[in-house]
Design brief:
single chain; 74% helix
Length: 242
């Protein structure tokens, strides 16, 4: 279990680092957000170990990334209470329900997610799974962003293309991995590549925010995070061979 938790945290730290690199250009540092992601990552790592203690550790890291992202999006949309004025693209998806109902739905969705991971197997051909997860991510992003930014064909097709590359690589490295772990790992790998491109390579203020002016102090300081990010990528690469 310790190995699973360690691998899951390597994955989650990747998400934390690109989040800090991009988001702190316009918002304040929040230790609570970091702790939230770490805790979610640990809980999913433990559940994965309970379900299947024989997964490759690289797959564990990618699966935990995927599950942490899904859980966090559910939390933002239905559980968290936050002023949305700073957002161009609301993190709560403009869901207008009584808070108790939103809380119930959020917790229910997370429970359903855990149940699906525990019980469901996916016997579909893995090539089809790769296409499905890429298109699903693209559709999710389009439904969230297009009402506020318009449809962007480049952004839409980026996720399927990246998913195909990640899925093909995983098929070569781990040809016997079962469908559900393959699907989640492909989604996790897609997040690593896409978020690196959006948050670190481009280095711009994330499009979800209203504000378009950089925090100049953080723009300089954040370069120190690149060292940690490289170490995290090396850690992920090492897991391939463990």
């Amino acid at each position: 279990m310790t190995y699973y938790i360690f691998s899951g945290l390597i994955g989650v730290i990747n998400m934390i680092l690109w989040g800090l690199y991009g988001d702190l250009l316009v918002e304040r540092f929040s230790f609570v957000k970091i702790l939230r992601s770490v805790l979610i990552g640990i809980l999913w790592s433990i559940l994965l170990f309970i379900i299947n203690p024989d997964l490759p550790l690289f797959i564990v890291a990618l699966v935990v990334i995927s599950l942490e992202r899904i859980t966090t999006e559910i939390y933002k949309a239905l559980i968290r209470v936050e002023d949305q004025n700073k957002y161009k693209i609301p993190s709560d998806l403009n869901i207008r329900l009584a808070y108790k109902l939103k809380l119930f739905l959020g917790l229910l969705l997370i429970l359903i997610l855990g149940t699906l991971v525990y019980l469901v197997e996916i016997p579909i051909n893995k090539i089809y799974l790769t296409l499905i997860i890429g298109i699903f991510i693209a559709l999710g992003g389009m439904l969230k962003d297009a009402p506020f930014e318009g449809f962007d064909s480049v952004k839409f097709f980026r996720s399927p293309i990246v998913a195909i590359i990640i899925g093909t690589s995983l098929l070569i490295l781990f040809p016997t991995i079962s469908g559900k772990y393959f699907l989640l790992a492909t989604a996790g790998g897609e997040r690593i590549i896409s978020e690196f491109y959006k948050k670190i390579f481009r280095g711009r203020i994330p499009g979800k925010f209203q504000q378009k002016e950089f925090n100049k102090t953080w723009e300089e300081k954040r370069k120190l995070l690149l060292f940690l990010y490289v170490l995290d990528i090396i850690g992920l690469a090492v897991l391939i061979f463990v």
